[in-house]
């Protein structure tokens, strides 16, 4: 039996949400930065370990300064959130604690994964420690540029959502 | 040395260089005169310079003359509107005439087909409809020619935009993505304009209309081509209300295939256009 799930990519401007999605969908990376306006929607089918197929409808939202400013109508009905921050720009993870608190309070039943992007440019260990001190667990580090860890992140959330069915 | 010899010697010493210079100048003048007076020699010297200047001039035309030409043309057109209309009228007239002719031919062909079908069930039905409603049979015929067609039906979960079921004969864009984007557009419009929790009910684009009917947990989007009349909208709304009565109580338990089946059954008698 097939299922369809809505996954939303969240994160500040320029953290690489669209690049991650493009890498996952087409295995391509583009150097040019084009900011996302509104939302773009992609679909990818994944086979779960059980053999069932899961259609991921991925909503790539435009960047924000705080998740509380995002259009709530884009977030409702979601099955999973991937919160992306940029390892090279502290401003994208300094207020992560507040951001995650907001999401967990308003969308308690939605599966949430925190991802650090651009690990080809900066070592993640010190940031992981910094976030651990704030009681935050990062679920993965990746690079849309090299492709490292990207597939795993989307598979991970798909398996997690798929197993909850 | 006699006095005469001494004088000659002095003259030689003083004037020899001047003479040589004068001779060199004379030679140069002769060469220049020759160059100027003989065409081929002159063009050999001047042509490359003229060519270079010409090339530069051509390159600079759009920059230097472009705005001047545009302004002049604008001014000319503004000042001589009648002449411009006079010049364009025959061309435009011909084009419009040809288009109308072809449309009328098409219309008359369709009308003839319908008139020739006098004893068909549809024609008899039309005659009765004309008799009972008071609408002329010819008007009914005309409305039938551009009758609205249901092209696609989408049953979409509110919020998530997940496609619950669909009836379609096209295979262009992925239906899941269409339902996602429709939901995003719908959410955007409903958020952007402060209408106090109102719902988007229609999207129109040239030859097509998307009728949107909202229910509690889902909405139905119907893509229609042809003339989307108020009476058809009413008919469609009633049909969708009937559909929702059947769907709503079990929407959360039905699979996509089951909902697709319900849609096929519901729109069986409707003209769902194949592309």
Automatic annotation (TrEMBL), chain A:
A GO term for molecular function: GTPase activity
Keyword Magnesium: no
InterPro entries per record: P-loop_NTPase, Small_GTP-bd, Small_GTPase
Stored Pfam families: Ras
Name used for this protein in its record: Small GTP-binding protein
Keyword Zinc-finger: no
Keywords, alphabetical: Nucleotide-binding
UniProtKB/TrEMBL annotation, chain B:
UniProt organism field: Ulvibacter antarcticus
Domain of life, per lineage: Bacteria
Protein name per Swiss-Prot or TrEMBL: Cell envelope biogenesis protein OmpA
């Amino acid at each position: 039996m097939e299922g369809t799930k809505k996954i939303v990519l969240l994160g500040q401007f320029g953290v690489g949400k669209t690049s991650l999605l493009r890498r996952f969908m087409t295995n391509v990376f583009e150097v040019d930065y084009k900011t996302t306006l509104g939302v773009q929607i992609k679909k990818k089918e994944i086979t779960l370990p059980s053999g069932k197929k899961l259609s991921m409808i991925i909503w790539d939202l435009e960047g924000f300064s705080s998740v509380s400013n995002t259009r709530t109508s884009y977030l409702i009905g979601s099955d999973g959130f991937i919160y992306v921050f940029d390892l090279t720009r502290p401003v994208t993870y300094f207020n992560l604690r507040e951001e995650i608190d907001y999401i967990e309070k308003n969308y308690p039943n939605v599966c949430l994964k925190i991802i650090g992007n651009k690990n080809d440019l900066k070592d993640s260990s010190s940031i992981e420690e910094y976030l651990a001190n704030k009681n935050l667990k990062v679920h993965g580090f990746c690079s849309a540029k090299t492709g490292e860890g990207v597939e795993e992140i989307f598979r991970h959330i798909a398996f997690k959502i798929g197993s909850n069915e | 040395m006699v006095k005469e010899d001494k004088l000659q010697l002095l003259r030689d010493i003083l004037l020899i260089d001047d003479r040589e210079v004068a001779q060199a100048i004379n030679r140069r003048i002769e060469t220049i005169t020759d160059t100027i007076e003989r065409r081929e020699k002159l063009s050999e010297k001047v042509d490359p310079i003229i060519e270079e200047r010409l090339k530069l001039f051509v390159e600079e035309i759009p920059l230097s003359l472009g705005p001047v030409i545009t302004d002049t043309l604008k001014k000319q057109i503004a000042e001589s509107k009648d002449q411009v209309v006079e010049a364009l009228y025959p061309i435009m007239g011909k084009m419009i005439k040809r288009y109308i002719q072809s449309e009328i031919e098409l219309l008359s062909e369709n009308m003839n087909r319908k008139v020739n079908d006098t004893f068909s069930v549809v024609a008899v039905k039309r005659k009765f409809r004309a008799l009972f409603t008071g609408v002329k049979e010819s008007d009914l015929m005309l409305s039938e020619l551009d009758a609205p067609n249901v092209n696609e039906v989408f049953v979409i979960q509110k919020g998530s935009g997940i496609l619950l079921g669909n009836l379609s004969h096209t295979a262009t864009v992925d239906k899941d993505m269409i339902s996602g984007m429709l939901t995003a557009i719908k959410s955007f419009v409903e958020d952007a304009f402060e209408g106090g929790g109102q719902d988007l009910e229609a999207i129109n684009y040239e030859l097509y209309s998307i009728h949107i009917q909202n229910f509690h947990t889902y909405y139905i989007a119907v893509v229609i081509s042809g003339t989307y009349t108020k009476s058809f909208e009413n008919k469609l709304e009633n049909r969708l209300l009937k559909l929702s009565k059947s769907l709503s109580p079990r929407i959360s338990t039905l699979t996509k295939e089951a909902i697709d089946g319900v849609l096929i059954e519901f729109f069986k008698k409707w003209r769902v256009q194949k592309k």
